[in-house]
Amino acid sequence: MHFSSVTGQEGIKEQLIKMASSRKIPHAMLFTEEQGFGALPLVLSFVQYLSCPNRSEHDSCGTCPSCSKISKMIHPDLHFVFPVNTTSGGGSKPVSDNFITTWRESVSADPYLTEQEFYEKCGIENKLGNISVAEASSIFRKLSMTAFEGGNKYMVVWLAERMNQEASNKLLKLMEEPPDKTFLFLVSQSPDRILTTILSRCRIVKVPPVDVKTLATRLENDFRLEPADAFLWARISGGSISRARRLISESTESSAFDSLITSLINSSLSKDLSRVIMVWEEVAQLSREKQKEFCYNLLEYIRRIYMISIGSPGLSFVPASRTETFRIWASRINPAFFEKGIEHINAALGDIERNVNSKYIFADLGNRFFLSL
Ligand SMILES: [Zn+2]
Fold it and tell me: What's the pTM value of the predicted model, to 2 decimals?
């Protein structure tokens, strides 16, 4: 992958290129992000850049044998670790290598893919993946071998927070005595769940949200949107490409959470606290994935109401049968609410990712809606 194929993140690209030319590359780096900011694409472009003998000041060449193998993720000195789990057809102790073909296909098709999307492709969507001690042993074996092509060896660990305790301890040992010419690149969306001893051995790169303008341009091209609409989606998504994509595709489908969301908005507007509580109690009982879906749907509702309130109903994509309801909401909701509402929902999404207690997350979100709507 080229740096130029990574959306935005110019500051980080510049840092990485500087690091490459200084030849002072840390043995272990941790790229932290929120889903959809682009940590994995950055790591893939960085590895390609480091290995390319014909790189320019700005990017890898993309055509030499090394670039070609790295872009297909088949370079023998580039290894991948990612969370996996058992499938009905798989062995009892699955490791990343069992899913490497799916990994290559999925990441090639979309380096911004989400954890859940990857699990679906692997056929493990009902379980959480993990990085086991069997995996850590395999990392050890691979990195202790001599590089096949005589250059550096790279290990990319995607979603390092999924390492269990044993795997973490084993990886830590590797970090304490890193083999020569070996580089570990960890990606994490929940670095607070990684052992502090591992964190302290990594150079940490905080990948920020994609800037709104760049993200809007990408969305405009990918989805053939009007510039104003693309800009709005970019803002609502909080700089996350995967979140923006999901919101856009859901906006064209009818929402599975219509009645819950309608009830939440109506009862908050009419200051009916007991009904607000009923809604959040129901949402708190859903699975983690469904809770996320609820939040994405709620974001979409707010976007639609906002578009109507600023006099752009054409961009709201409200089905004809609901136009009147949305018009009434738009006339009753205080304009100051929109920005805050989006922040509250994005905070709830972050809390779901961090496995905060559901009751707490939705009691808080319900209260905030009740008070500020
Ligand atoms: Zn090259």
Answer: 0.74
